[in-house]
Each structure stands twice: as structure tokens, then as C-alpha cells.
Amino acid sequence: AAMDYAELAAAAAAKMELYRRDPGGWRGCRRTSEVAVSWRPSAEFAGNVYRAEGILPASPQRVWECIKPVAGGLRTKWDQNVKDFEVIEAVSDTVSVCRTTTPSAFMRIISPREFVDVVLMKQCEDGTMLSAATNVEHPLCPPQPNFVRGFNYPCGCFCILLPGEPDRTQLLSFFQTDLGGYLPQTVVDSFFPASIAGFYSNLTKAVKTLKV
């Protein structure tokens, strides 16, 4: 029901706020010129939650335009991990149920995946824009035969204003995904830090070049 979706979305957003304020226990695993990635064991499933932080060379509005989870948005243009993104149901102005498909990855060891999530977009009191998501079931989205169904646990991104720097944005992201299927843990553990570094690298290019 719509109420349940809205509640799940609000709970995912609340988790994001908790992760943002909780500096404890993160262990660094990858650093590039664009992003620092760290991880800790997830409390949601038998995997890790990843924290990524970087500064992008564009205004928060521009970064938000590139990452916001909307139909016909820019994500499919620049994010190599998003093949297709569709809104299955608009629950409210700020909450929607979405299906994302991903191409095969990691030299095809990881086959195409599909994810069905409830997604919330909101502006925080300090002007930060937040997008938060978590996995849900939806009657219009039964599992598709050509995809492995994966599950996002509470995850999201904060577009944070930097005082006095209108053309730079801090992007703080949390990734928490069960890829499903039967992947060796070593593959999963090496895939995510590399994938997240790629996300920041591709987004950095996108905010410089894409017409928003």
C-alpha cells in the first residue's frame, strides 16, 4: 500500500541521517583524487555498507540534476552501472517505486541485475538534498528471467552545500547492496570499492559536460 511505501522510504532516509552522523567503525578501502571510500559490516544484511565522500566541481543544484532518481533523468547517461531506470509508481511528490537494471560487470563475472526500490527525495533543513532508497516488492515488478534480482538496503546520497563555495559540492553517499545470485565474497568485496570510485569519476565528468 502507498502508506507502507512512504513509511519504508522515510525509514531509509532516517537511516541515512544516522549514518551521516555516525563516524564510528568505518575502515578506509579505496582513495582516489575524487573520492574516499570506507566500509563497515552492515547491520541490515550479511554484507558491508560503504561510505563514500568527495567534492565535486559544480553547484549542488547541478550535481542534484545529475543524480536525482527521476524518469528521464541523467543517471542512465553517465552512470555505467545504471542501464535503465523506470518509475513504477509515483507514491507522492517525493516518494516513488523504481526499477533499476544494471549491465553485466566485472569482466562479466557479475551478470545483469535488477533492483526494485522505494526512493525518497527531500531537502534537509540546512539546504542539503537527500535521495534515499531501500528494496521493496511491487506487483508490477515480478522478477524478470534475464536478470538476477538484487536488493538495496538503506542507501542514498547527500548533496551538501559548502559555505562560501557555490560551485563546489560535497557528495556523501552510502551504498549497501546485496547483489544476489551466487557470487564469491572476494568478487563482491573487490567490486564495490572499484564501482564506487567509478561512480564518482563518471559523475565528476558528467557535472562538467552534461547539459542540465
Describe the structure.
With 212 residues, this protein is α+β, with helices and mostly antiparallel strands. It has a single domain (5-19, 40-162, 186-209), classed as START domain (Alpha-D-Glucose-1,6-Bisphosphate, Chain A, domain 4, 2-Layer Sandwich), CATH 3.30.530.20. 27% of the residues lie in helices and 34% in strands. Strands 1, 2, 3, 4, 5, 6, 7, 8, 10 and 11 form a ten-stranded mixed beta sheet that branches. A two-stranded antiparallel ribbon has the order 9-12. One of its GO terms (biological process) is cholesterol import. This is STAR5 protein. Residues 1-212 form the START domain.
Shape: globular
Straight-line distance between termini: 34 Å
Order of helices and strands: HEEEHHEEEEEEEEEH
Fourth-level CATH superfamily: START domain
CATH architecture: 2-Layer Sandwich
Provide the structure class.
Answer: alpha+beta
CATH names the topology as: Alpha-D-Glucose-1,6-Bisphosphate, Chain A, domain 4
User: pLDDT average, as an integer?
Assistant: 95
Portion in strands: 25-35%
Oligomer: single chain
Helical stretch tally: 4
Helix percentage range? 25-40%
The total number of structural domains is: 1
Characterize the biggest β-sheet.
10 strands, mixed
- CATH class descriptor name: Alpha Beta
Query: How many β-strand runs?
Result: 12
Taking all Cα atoms into account, the compactness measure Rg is 16 Å
Stretches with pLDDT under 50, minimum 5 residues: none
Annotation keywords:
single chain; 212 residues; alpha+beta; 10-stranded mixed β-sheet; 4 helices; globular; lipid transport; cholesterol transfer activity
